[in-house]
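We store chain and fold; example below:
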Amino acid sequence: MKFGSVDNPEAVDFTLPPTHPDTFALLGKEKTDAELTVSVGCAKWNRQDLKGFYPRGTKDELVYYATQFNSIELNGTFYNSPDKQQVETWKAKTPADFKFFPKVPQSISHYGRLLNVDDKMTAFCDAIALFEEQLGVSFLQLHDNFKPKDFQRLEQFIRKFANAVPLAVEVRNAEWFADADVSQRLYRLLEETGVANIIVDTAGRRDMLHMRLTTPTAFVRYVGANHPTDKRRLDDWVARIREWRDAGLRSLYFFVHQNVELESPLLSTYFIGELNKALGLNVRGPAHLL
């Protein structure tokens, strides 16, 4: 994932910002004794991107991937909205505990810019609903130039979509984070509609580490910089997730990207191993790498 990439990651301060105080307030209201539910994986399963991950002779990449990780951030649906048969095929290849997190198609988010997209939205929701219990949440990633001036358009879309399937939202334009009143308006909408507020950890856009959860779910998109700092950054996330778990976090969705996709499975596996040790969990990961 090229978004937020920099030429000199060693010069970036990767320190995680403090947790937003409203996050602690929200988690405190939701606190239960239930064990934290965790989904960790990569953004895609194709062999071309995950070089060296698949054993020689692997015939079906998704079948193998789903034995190694418990979830996938399904970026492929951004480029081509799946039909019902495709969803049923994917579901049939994976175990019952495997979760899909499909991305809203660009025909809706980028080309349509959320306007006059009801038919496309309905087709997408009807298809991914066939994942049934294996559907995690879908996620809407807005274009970099989608600004707060279009808040009403976003609100109308969210109120329609969130009634159909679970949703998370990622805003990218810096104006969403630069003005506290703008940010608060967005966070109130997401909290009211039960929509998760995606956190992006990438070198060149530290403003997207808003640390403001709007549901008792943390949806984190982590972008490694192909640099030795990548694992240290993951260690910091383990500590933060433990803090949020103790405060009342119920679910974690954590997906690993890299600017150049060489070691996403290795970084995902490292994170799973450290999270399991720190929180006493048993999240599935590649046994030969853990």
